[in-house]
Structure formats: structure tokens, C-alpha cells
Specification:
The protein is mainly α. The chain has helices at 14-20, 28-31, 33-37.
Length: 47
Amino acid sequence: MFVRLVFQAQHLDLDFYDKHFEKDSYHDPHREPFRLWHPEFKDPFGK
């Protein structure tokens, strides 16, 4: 059996997605990655 596991970890450029894609084209984990995954850091992209 061969299983390929592929994933991509990144912080999305939400302004880009808001400009070029429909509303809600990304989910809550993408909106608040620092609060969810890096609570020890201040969100540099926070609005």
C-alpha cells in the first residue's frame, strides 16, 4: 500500500483573498492563525 501525505502550512494573505475571491473563501482558522496556533505571539496582521 502506498499513501502520500501532502499538506501545506502557511498564513494566508487575507487582503488578497478578500479582494480576488468571494466572501468566506477561507475559514476561521485562516482568519486567526496567531490566536489559534501561536498564542504566545502578537498577531502582526491583526486589524
